[in-house]
Specification:
26% strand; alpha/beta; single chain; five-stranded mixed beta sheet
Length: 259
C-alpha cells in the first residue's frame, strides 16, 4: 500500500512498513522538494528523511507490512517541516537521545543523526511520532502542489564492481549504501573479507548517501578487519559524506580519502 495526497504547501504519504516503499517515499518527497525552487544540496534533507522513516519502519513497525507509516512534508519560505508517525507502541526517546553510541557500535546512530542534522526535533509523548524542522535555501511553498503518481517500477539491487589494484581489493558500490541494499552488500563484504589477503578499499565515487544502517555495515567490516590487523579505507569520499563520518566520530576508524 502506497498513497500520496497533496495539501496546500505540502504532501503526505502513507505506506506499508517496508524498506522498498521507504525508498519510494524518499524519492517522491525529494521530487516534491526539488519542485519548490530549492538551491544547493539536499544531502541533509535526504538523510533526515531516511533516518526518521527507518526508525518508523524498522523499530516502530518491526518491518510489519500490515502496519502503516505516515509521512507529511510541509514547505514554507525557507523552512521544511517533516512529520513521521508509525503504528508501533513507541519508545523512550528521552533516554535514547542521551546515549549516543560508541564509535565501534554497529547500530544506534539514527537518533543522533536526527538531532545533529535537524534544526529542531520533537517527539510526541509515546515516541511513535517525530516532527523535524530544517532550513532549506530557496524553499517556497506554492498554494497546491500538483499531483504526481511517481515512478511505480520496482527498484533493482545495485551491482558492485570488485577489482584488485596494487595488492588492494577495491569494492565499488553502484549506488547509495542504505538499508534496502544492506543485506546484499553485507554478503559481498563477507565473501571478500573471508578471502582477503591485503588492504580493503571501498570506492564511494558512485555513493551520494550512507544512512545509519549503511554506517553500521561499514563499522562491522572495520571491526572484522581490525581483528586481522587491517584497516578499512574509504576512497573518493564526497565532502557531505566526509562531514557525516566526522560528525559520527568515525574519521579515526576509517582511512578516508577525499574525492
Amino acid at each position: 500500500m502506497f498513497e500520496i495526497q497533496s495539501f496546500p504547501g505540502g504532501r503526505s504519504i502513507r505506506f506499508s512498513a517496508s524498506l522498498s516503499l521507504l525508498d519510494r517515499a524518499v524519492d517522491e518527497t525529494v521530487r516534491f522538494i526539488k519542485g519548490r525552487n530549492v538551491t544547493g544540496s539536499l544531502f541533509d534533507v535526504k538523510l533526515l528523511l531516511r533516518e526518521a522513516l527507518l526508525n518508523a519502519v524498522l523499530h516502530g513497525s518491526r518491518s510489519d507490512p500490515l502496519r502503516r507509516v505516515s509521512l507529511a512534508v510541509a514547505a514554507a519560505d525557507g523552512r521544511l517541516t517533516i512529520t513521521v508517525a508509525d503504528q508501533g507502541p513507541g519508545f523512550d526517546w528521552r533516554s535514547s537521545l542521551a546515549k549516543p553510541p560508541p564509535p565501534e557500535a554497529t547500530s544506534g546512530r539514527g537518533l543522533t543523526i536526527l538531532t545533529l542534522y535537524a534544526d529542531d526535533v520533537r517527539f510526541n509523548a509515546a515516541g511513535n511520532q517525530v516532527t523535524l524542522t530544517k532550513a532549506v535555501s530557496g524553499l517556497r511553498g506554492p498554494a497546491i502542489p500538483p499531483e504526481d503518481a511517481g515512478d511505480n517500477t520496482a527498484r533493482s539491487l545495485p551491482m558492485h564492481d570488485i577489482r584488485i589494484e596494487d595488492s588492494r581489493t577495491i569494492l565499488c558500490p553502484d549506488g547509495d549504501i542504505v538499508a534496502s541494499v544492506a543485506d546484499e552488500l553485507r554478503t559481498h563484504l563477507k565473501e571478500i573479507m573471508h578471502q582477503l589477503t591485503g588492504p580493503l578499499v571501498i570506492d564511494l565515487s558512485r555513493v551520494e548517501l550512507i544512512d545509519s544502517v549503511g554506517i553500521g555495515l561499514l563499522i562491522a567490516a572495520h571491526n572484522t578487519l581490525s581483528k586481522k590487523g587491517e584497516r578499512l579505507a574509504l576512497a573518493h569520499v564526497s565532502p557531505d559524506l566526509a562531514a557525516l563520518l566526522r560528525t559520527m566520530r568515525l574519521d579515526k576508524h576509517f582511512h578516508i580519502q577525499p574525492d
